[in-house]
Amino acid sequence: MMRVVLHILAFLLLTFSGTVQGLWTCRWGPAANLEAAAACCDRMPMSLGDWEGHATPIDTRQLDVAEAVGHISRQYVHRHTGQPVSVLLVWGRPGPIAVHTPDVCYQGIGYQLLGKPENSRILSDSDNSADEFWTARFSKQQAAPDALRIFWSWRDRGPGERPTIPA
Question: Fewest CB within a 10 Å sphere: which of 62, 73, 119, 143?
Protein backbone atom coordinates (compact mmCIF):
# COMPACT_ATOMS: atom_id res chain seq x y z
CA MET A 1 0.00 0.00 0.00
CA MET A 2 2.80 2.40 0.91
CA ARG A 3 4.42 1.79 -2.46
CA VAL A 4 1.22 2.83 -4.31
CA VAL A 5 1.01 6.05 -2.26
CA LEU A 6 4.65 6.87 -3.07
CA HIS A 7 4.02 6.31 -6.79
CA ILE A 8 0.97 8.58 -6.70
CA LEU A 9 2.91 11.30 -4.83
CA ALA A 10 5.79 11.07 -7.30
CA PHE A 11 3.35 11.32 -10.22
CA LEU A 12 1.64 14.37 -8.69
CA LEU A 13 4.97 16.06 -7.94
CA LEU A 14 6.27 15.48 -11.49
CA THR A 15 2.98 16.67 -13.04
CA PHE A 16 2.94 19.80 -10.87
CA SER A 17 6.60 20.69 -11.52
CA GLY A 18 6.24 20.04 -15.26
CA THR A 19 3.16 22.26 -15.44
CA VAL A 20 4.87 25.08 -13.51
CA GLN A 21 7.96 24.86 -15.73
CA GLY A 22 5.81 24.78 -18.88
CA LEU A 23 3.86 27.88 -17.83
CA TRP A 24 7.03 29.69 -16.76
CA THR A 25 8.78 29.09 -20.09
CA CYS A 26 5.66 29.64 -22.26
CA ARG A 27 5.99 26.10 -23.63
CA TRP A 28 2.38 26.03 -24.84
CA GLY A 29 2.28 29.48 -26.41
CA PRO A 30 3.73 32.97 -26.14
CA ALA A 31 3.06 35.04 -23.04
CA ALA A 32 0.59 37.90 -23.41
CA ASN A 33 3.26 40.49 -22.51
CA LEU A 34 5.54 39.06 -25.21
CA GLU A 35 2.84 39.40 -27.85
CA ALA A 36 2.14 42.98 -26.67
CA ALA A 37 5.85 43.86 -26.96
CA ALA A 38 6.00 42.37 -30.46
CA ALA A 39 2.96 44.44 -31.46
CA CYS A 40 5.06 47.60 -31.13
CA CYS A 41 6.91 46.64 -34.33
CA ASP A 42 4.47 48.72 -36.34
CA ARG A 43 5.04 51.80 -34.18
CA MET A 44 8.77 52.21 -34.85
CA PRO A 45 9.11 55.13 -37.29
CA MET A 46 10.88 54.86 -40.64
CA SER A 47 12.35 58.35 -40.19
CA LEU A 48 14.39 59.18 -37.09
CA GLY A 49 15.79 62.71 -37.23
CA ASP A 50 18.27 62.80 -40.12
CA TRP A 51 18.00 59.04 -40.62
CA GLU A 52 15.69 57.56 -43.26
CA GLY A 53 14.85 53.87 -42.97
CA HIS A 54 13.64 51.09 -45.19
CA ALA A 55 12.71 47.50 -44.40
CA THR A 56 15.34 44.87 -45.11
CA PRO A 57 14.58 41.20 -45.69
CA ILE A 58 15.58 38.59 -43.14
CA ASP A 59 15.72 34.85 -43.70
CA THR A 60 12.57 33.37 -42.19
CA ARG A 61 14.55 30.26 -41.22
CA GLN A 62 16.59 32.42 -38.82
CA LEU A 63 13.40 33.74 -37.24
CA ASP A 64 12.06 30.19 -36.94
CA VAL A 65 15.25 28.98 -35.20
CA ALA A 66 15.05 31.91 -32.77
CA GLU A 67 11.33 31.22 -32.25
CA ALA A 68 10.78 34.94 -32.79
CA VAL A 69 7.30 36.28 -32.07
CA GLY A 70 8.04 39.59 -33.78
CA HIS A 71 10.91 41.45 -35.41
CA ILE A 72 12.03 44.67 -37.08
CA SER A 73 14.74 44.48 -39.74
CA ARG A 74 15.70 47.84 -41.21
CA GLN A 75 18.53 49.85 -42.61
CA TYR A 76 18.69 53.54 -41.76
CA VAL A 77 20.75 55.90 -43.94
CA HIS A 78 21.89 59.34 -42.77
CA ARG A 79 20.48 61.92 -45.19
CA HIS A 80 23.62 64.12 -45.19
CA THR A 81 26.49 61.64 -44.90
CA GLY A 82 25.01 58.54 -46.55
CA GLN A 83 26.28 56.45 -43.60
CA PRO A 84 24.14 53.29 -43.17
CA VAL A 85 23.16 51.58 -39.91
CA SER A 86 21.34 48.24 -39.82
CA VAL A 87 18.86 47.51 -37.04
CA LEU A 88 17.44 44.12 -36.10
CA LEU A 89 15.11 43.89 -33.11
CA VAL A 90 13.72 40.47 -32.21
CA TRP A 91 11.03 39.58 -29.70
CA GLY A 92 10.70 36.06 -28.37
CA ARG A 93 11.30 33.69 -25.50
CA PRO A 94 14.70 34.26 -23.90
CA GLY A 95 16.01 30.71 -24.27
CA PRO A 96 16.00 30.32 -28.05
CA ILE A 97 17.04 33.94 -28.65
CA ALA A 98 19.77 34.16 -25.99
CA VAL A 99 21.66 31.16 -27.36
CA HIS A 100 21.89 32.75 -30.82
CA THR A 101 23.94 35.83 -29.97
CA PRO A 102 25.91 37.52 -32.77
CA ASP A 103 29.24 36.19 -31.48
CA VAL A 104 27.90 32.70 -32.23
CA CYS A 105 25.71 33.28 -35.29
CA TYR A 106 28.03 35.52 -37.31
CA GLN A 107 30.88 33.05 -36.94
CA GLY A 108 28.48 30.40 -38.26
CA ILE A 109 28.08 32.34 -41.53
CA GLY A 110 31.78 32.90 -42.12
CA TYR A 111 32.65 36.00 -40.08
CA GLN A 112 35.66 36.00 -37.81
CA LEU A 113 35.27 37.47 -34.32
CA LEU A 114 38.01 40.10 -33.81
CA GLY A 115 38.66 40.06 -30.07
CA LYS A 116 36.33 39.29 -27.19
CA PRO A 117 32.88 40.88 -26.87
CA GLU A 118 32.98 43.94 -24.62
CA ASN A 119 30.33 45.67 -22.53
CA SER A 120 29.43 49.13 -23.86
CA ARG A 121 27.21 51.94 -22.55
CA ILE A 122 25.32 54.21 -24.94
CA LEU A 123 24.16 57.48 -23.41
CA SER A 124 20.85 59.08 -24.31
CA ASP A 125 20.98 62.75 -25.31
CA SER A 126 17.48 63.40 -24.01
CA ASP A 127 17.60 62.25 -20.38
CA ASN A 128 21.25 61.32 -19.62
CA SER A 129 20.27 57.69 -19.10
CA ALA A 130 22.42 54.88 -20.45
CA ASP A 131 21.63 51.55 -22.06
CA GLU A 132 24.14 48.74 -21.90
CA PHE A 133 25.04 46.55 -24.84
CA TRP A 134 27.61 43.97 -25.77
CA THR A 135 29.69 44.93 -28.79
CA ALA A 136 32.16 43.11 -30.97
CA ARG A 137 33.86 43.55 -34.31
CA PHE A 138 33.63 40.95 -37.06
CA SER A 139 35.37 40.53 -40.38
CA LYS A 140 34.70 38.35 -43.39
CA GLN A 141 37.40 37.77 -45.98
CA GLN A 142 35.91 37.75 -49.47
CA ALA A 143 36.43 39.60 -52.75
CA ALA A 144 35.72 42.88 -50.92
CA PRO A 145 36.50 42.55 -47.19
CA ASP A 146 33.44 43.09 -45.05
CA ALA A 147 33.85 44.57 -41.54
CA LEU A 148 31.05 44.94 -38.99
CA ARG A 149 30.66 46.33 -35.51
CA ILE A 150 27.64 44.78 -33.86
CA PHE A 151 25.86 45.81 -30.67
CA TRP A 152 23.42 43.47 -28.93
CA SER A 153 21.42 43.33 -25.75
CA TRP A 154 18.30 41.77 -24.36
CA ARG A 155 15.87 42.70 -21.69
CA ASP A 156 13.01 40.95 -19.96
CA ARG A 157 12.21 43.11 -16.97
CA GLY A 158 12.84 46.68 -18.03
CA PRO A 159 15.59 49.30 -18.04
CA GLY A 160 18.51 49.27 -15.68
CA GLU A 161 19.54 45.66 -16.11
CA ARG A 162 23.10 44.93 -17.07
CA PRO A 163 23.09 42.55 -20.03
CA THR A 164 25.01 39.38 -19.39
CA ILE A 165 26.08 36.76 -21.86
CA PRO A 166 24.16 33.59 -20.99
CA ALA A 167 26.31 30.73 -19.71
Answer: 143
**21 Rama sector, left if φ>0, alpha if ψ -120 to 50, beta otherwise:** alpha
Task: State the amino acid at position 28 in one-letter form.
Answer: W
> At 89, which amino acid appears?
L
Does residue 134 contact residue 153 with C-beta atoms inside 8 Å?
yes
Q: Which amino acid is at 101?
A: T
113 phi and psi angles, rounded to 5 deg: -75, 125
Pairwise CA distance, residues 11 & 8, whole Å? 5
Please state, in angstroms and as integers, the Cα–Cα distance from residue 64 to each residue in 68, 90, 91, following that order. 6, 11, 12
Burial label for 90, CB within 10 Å (0-12, 13-18, 19+), is buried
Whole-angstrom distance, CA of residue 14 vs CA of residue 6: 12
**If phi over 0 gives left and psi between -120 and 50 gives alpha, with beta otherwise, what is residue 161?**
beta
pTM for this prediction: 0.66
Shortest CA distance to 135 belongs to which of 147, 153, 123? Answer: 153
Q: How confident is the model at residue 5 (pLDDT cuts 50, 70, 90)?
A: confident
